[in-house]
Amino acid sequence: MVPLNHYLAVATLLFGIGLCGALVRRNALTIFMSIELMLNAANLTFLAFARHPLHGAASVNGQAVAFFVMAVAAAEAAVGLAIIIAVFRVRGTVNVDELRSLRN
Fold first, then answer.
1. Neighbours of 101 (CB within 10 A)
2. DSSP 3-state assignment of 93?
3. Which of 17, 30, 47, 93 could disulfide-pair with 25, CB 3.0 to 4.6 Å?
């Protein structure tokens, strides 16, 4: 059995990479992928704690929360990509430095 610390280390690394990508990058698609990476890191921690037996029995609560986070991430992906495509059609770019407002 893999120790809980290893799961948490990988999740921390994934969340850190996602956070750096969201703060440093200027392309909206790259920022979007970085946010998805941070959500996956949160899912990994939920599932790691659900698998780790606390007080003798494994919990299903972490798996339920991870399933909910995946559903929210899927909805966010659909709506987010639709907004990015709509902005690209109007402005011709997805660089966030050039997109100061949603007005034409």
1. 5
2. coil
3. 30
Assess contact for 85 and 94: CB atoms under 8 A: no
CA-CA-CA-CA torsion sign (44, 63, 79, 103): negative
- How far apart are alpha carbons 37 and 16 in whole angstroms? 9
Instruction: Write out the two tokens for 80.
Output: 């987010």
In tens, the pLDDT along 56-87 reads 566 677 788 888 888 988 998 899 999 999 98
Q: Which residue has the higher pLDDT, 87 or 53?
A: 87
Distance CA 18, CA 31 (A): 8
Strand partners, 95: 27
Residue 41: both structure tokens together: 């890191």
Lookup result for tokens 């949603």: 102
